[in-house]
Design a protein that fits this description.
By secondary structure, the protein is of the alpha/beta class. Helix content is 31%, strand content 24%. It has two domains: 4-121 and 248-260, Rossmann fold (3-Layer(aba) Sandwich); 126-237, Dihydrodipicolinate Reductase, domain 2, CATH 3.30.360.
Length: 268
């Protein structure tokens, strides 16, 4: 199969890990270009890491790459997705919570032969949820516990005057649907959006979010009730350089890229 040319859109904690991995070699893919808000810093990083690739504007990515990996703030999702999808290319979306209010991007992919990929990210069990969704799922509930500094500044907290500073006990800061959570915590609970897309949708997938000073990892527990199975899944993710993001997210992207041209692909 031909080598897949990959662009990295965003050189934050995830993008930097991905760039190094592609430099070191991932079978079947190559780093074609990067895009970043600060081109100067991007050039400095690439030079320091001995990574040879151009730094381009978001709108120029389709001319360089077959697939763009979105590693940027949710606010720029459309600027990454729209040019790629209009060109019939693929986008791997990490800020999948930002997809929920933008169903037009999925229609755009259909119209032009593009494709949106959502990797497993910081969650687990999406294969099982997707399989159960082929039958009937009665309920999906997720409970997330994060260190308070991993939630600080979230729009839901700011809008409702909820403080997570100086906590000495766990505090429930949100309870509602995955759609509401994605809007209120755009940098924190993309896992809930991915879970909802794999299962029964963002309005029926429920989530509780706790600011918990007693944890040092981003903890997620999923409970699924379906006609095919009843299961509970838990994961505790070590934070990356960015406390809002788990270290496993970048590794999930690398694993997904390896699957693109792999002779053996495990999991649905």
């Amino acid at each position: 199969m031909p080598t897949v040319r990959v662009a990295i859109a965003g050189l934050g904690a995830i993008g930097r890990v991905l760039a190094r991995a592609l430099r070191d070699g991932v079978a079947g893919v190559e780093l074609a270009c990067v895009s970043a808000r600060d081109a100067g810093k991007a050039h400095a990083f690439l030079d320091a890491e001995r990574i040879a690739c151009p730094v381009v504007a978001l709108g120029e990515i389709p001319g360089h790459a077959d697939l763009a990996v979105e590693c940027a703030p949710a606010a720029v999702l459309e600027s990454i997705c729209r040019p790629m999808l209009e060109a019939g290319r693929q986008v791997m979306v990490l800020s999948c919570g930002a997809l929920l209010p933008r169903p037009d991007l999925i229609e755009l992919a259909k119209a032009h032969g593009g494709r949106i990929l959502v990797p497993t990210g910081g969650l687990l069990g999406l294969d099982a949820v997707a399989a159960a969704a082929e039958g009937r799922i009665s309920s999906v509930r997720m409970t997330t516990r994060k260190p308070p500094n991993g939630l600080a500044g979230a729009p839901h907290l700011v809008a409702n005057g909820i403080s997570v500073e100086g906590l000495d006990a766990p505090k429930l800061v949100f309870s509602g649907s995955a759609r509401e959570a994605a809007a209120g915590f755009p940098a924190n609970v993309n896992v809930a959006a991915a879970l909802s897309l794999a299962g029964i949708g963002p309005d029926r997938t429920m989530i509780d979010i706790w600011a918990d000073p007693g944890v040092t990892r981003n903890c997620h527990a999923i409970e699924v009730e379906a006609d095919s199975a009843r299961f509970t899944l838990t994961i505790e993710n070590a934070p990356s350089e960015n406390p809002k993001t788990g270290r496993i997210v970048a590794l999930s992207v690398i694993a997904a890229l390896r699957k693109l041209n792999a002779p053996l692909r495990v999991g649905t």
